[in-house]
Write a structure and sequence with these properties.
mainly alpha, single chain
Amino acid sequence: MWKRLLLGIFILLAFEVGLFLIMFPWSTPWNDNLFLNSIPGLKDILMSYYTRGAVSGLGFVNVLVAIGEAWHFRKRIRDLESHETEEAARLTLEKT
């Protein structure tokens, strides 16, 4: 039960972080943040289309990981549960 919940939370978190990283570099808060105003050399780097594209690319990777995990959700849960039952059986054999 806990493994299903944790895997589901991981999938949702990876998907949400990916969407955030895809959209945030192209939004207004990216342009008007404290770091850009306090460090002038950083402004050129962060406002570069290459940097924005790299951050959005990381977002796409996160979304792809979330989709891949969601696609194989049942198989992963089945593998985790079978590993857990094998461990329990091994421990009971060691006790006897």
